[in-house]
Design brief:
There is one protein chain. The chain is mainly α. The protein is built from eight helices and four strands; from the N terminus they run H-H-H-H-E-E-H-E-E-H-H-H. The strands form two sheets. Strands 1-2 form a two-stranded antiparallel sheet. A two-stranded antiparallel sheet has the order 3-4. Helix 1 packs across helix 8. The termini are far apart. The mean pLDDT is 91.
Length: 180
Amino acid sequence: MTIEAIFTPNEAAAFAHLSPKRVYKEIEYKVIQPVLDTPRLSFAALIYLRALKEINFEFSVKHRIALYQGLVKAIEDQAATLEFARFFILQLGNISQELSELISQFNQWKSHLVNNPHIMGGQTVFPNSRLSVHHIGKMIERGESLEVIQEDYPYLSELDLKFAPLYIKAYPIMGRPKKG
């Protein structure tokens, strides 16, 4: 199962559980080829990045390029696995399924968020509230316990608490704060 969408480097970093710096490094070293010379990445790039996160082993640029190219070819051939080295086999089907489900759940959750220029200066907020998704995401990122957040904001769902940190990584606030 593959997703035909393209992703920003920040979205790719969030879904792969990597830092944006690592994603940009893979683009800079030309390991990952952006889609149509834009800073957008394919689903195959997400699979590669997620595999890198799980492997937690540093390959040379030459080997990372070979791994990515092999992965793209295996996906095109609809292979379930990719044998990269004698004892190194990637289960592409499992990574693809995990990412597809995560992205699908995230997009469904995100579709319920509110983005109105008349509410909180246009910041993305949870439905029927003035509570910023970035505020909750930052609280979780700083280590606040989910129980305390749930006690303070009982209308937040488990998905809100699961995806708020992912949202702030995928869509960081850029530039200076807006004037109220």
